[in-house]
Design a protein that fits this description.
It holds the Pfam family Fapy_DNA_glyco. By secondary structure, this protein is α+β, with helices and mostly antiparallel strands. The protein contains 7 helices and 19 strands. The strands form 6 sheets. Strands 2-3-12-16-17 form a 5-stranded antiparallel sheet. It has a 4-stranded antiparallel sheet with strand order 1-14-15-13. Strands 4-9-8-7 form a 4-stranded antiparallel sheet, with no helix packed on it. It is globular and about 60 Å long. 46% of the residues are buried.
């Protein structure tokens, strides 16, 4: 399954190609694509038609598209605080009770009424993030912003096709094409998914934790934790949560409600880098070493993203169909019986929590 670096690579590719594009239609070719949506595919397509892409976001292994001219909830926890939003080249809008502020760069404003909630409203240029909007007077009526959640599953690909390919399109009769989003410019995004574990879901945006959460996340994934690449991640707090658990480190790193985005590959790489055994009890590891483990994870994630992720086969590719090359630098995952680059000991493979784990028995001693 694509992990954080692979999904982030796809997110960046989509953002480079479809920001500002207006959806003309969505065609669904396989029922599993919208299996989490109660609506008929035609109704989903009709709801999306005419919307303009204003953002491509990610948390952990999930990404989603947001659309222009939708409101953002500012709840009472944010009053008298600085709310940072992506408003073109702009900066910060200060939200506080009974004041009105103006971000002149994009003519975005914060309106506060008698309650401690507010609406950040944007102009049709679409640079304001979606959320749940409550009326400024504190009433109960709500306007629910929607986002399109995309989960790649085991083999999902979001492939860009430039306009005017016509009969020359390699996707016209692709056996694993599950859905296509067509824009008014003629550009298309094809969802290719051989194993059909991936899906699209038109979902409500709800507030969640962290800066990403304040912009609104799909309700379906609101329960997952922030990931290692979020700028405001509190590593000390995550380390403390790990230490509170009596379980082994490897399963804890895979728990998306503790820290999101880590899968089998990067868990093994993190543990190797921090010289910790995958079966080591988290409670017996010092807080300092757990912080180091998470720091190793951040470094590895950044390097993997720079390399376009890890591709062992053609099931994971970026939006241009190109494979990542981080696999050539892996130190532990998939290297059974190969020498550890630190000490030369042949690496060991062991099943931990139903997953294959790769580690050095010399460098990563269990205690």
């Amino acid at each position: 399954m694509p992990e954080l670096p692979e999904v982030e690579t796809v997110r960046r590719g989509l953002a480079a190609h479809i920001l500002g594009e207006q959806i003309q239609q969505v065609s669904v070719y396989h029922p599993r694509v919208l299996r989490h949506d109660d609506r008929h595919p035609h109704d989903v397509s009709a709801r999306l038609a005419g919307l303009r892409i204003s953002g491509v976001h990610r948390r952990g292994k999930f990404l989603w598209l947001r659309f222009s001219d939708q409101p953002l909830l500012v709840n009472h926890d944010w009053t008298d605080q600085f709310l940072t939003t992506l408003v073109g080249e702009s900066k910060i809008v200060r939200a506080s009770q009974h004041i009105a502020a103006q971000a002149t760069a994009d003519r975005a404003s914060v309106r506060l009424g008698s309650s401690s909630s507010a609406v950040l409203a944007g102009q049709p240029d679409g640079n304001i993030a979606p959320g749940i909007a409550e009326d400024a007077g504190g009433g109960s009526q709500q306007t629910v912003a929607e986002v399109l959640l995309v989960h790649l599953g085991m083999s999902g690909q979001m492939l860009i096709e430039d306009p005017n390919r016509g009969d020359d399109s390699p996707f016209a009769h692709h056996p694993h094409r599950r859905a296509t989003m067509t824009f008014t410019s003629g550009r298309q995004v094809h969802f290719i998914d051989q194993r059909t574990f991936g899906y699209w879901h038109l979902d409500q945006a709800v507030p969640s934790t962290g800066a990403v959460g304040r912009l609104g996340v799909p309700r379906r994934v609101a329960h997952i934790a922030p990931d290692l690449c979020e700028a405001d991640l509190d590593i000390d707090r995550v380390a403390a949560r790990l230490k509170q658990r009596g379980a082994a480190l490897k399963p804890l790193l895979l728990d998306q409600q503790i820290i999101a985005g880590i899968g089998n590959i990067y868990a093994d790489e993190m543990l190797w880098s921090a010289q910790l055994h995958p079966l080591q009890s988290a409670q017996r590891v010092s807080h300092k070493r757990l912080v180091t483990l998470l720091g190793c994870g951040q470094t590895i994630m950044r390097r993997a993203i720079a390399a376009g992720g890890t591709s062992f086969d053609d099931l994971y590719v970026n939006v241009n169909g190109e494979s990542g090359y981080f696999d050539v630098t892996l130190e532990a995952y998939g290297r059974t019986d190969k020498p550890c680059s630190r000490c030369g000991t042949p690496l060991t493979r062991q099943v931990v929590g139903g997953r294959s784990s790769h580690y050095c028995a010399t460098c990563q001693r269990r205690y």
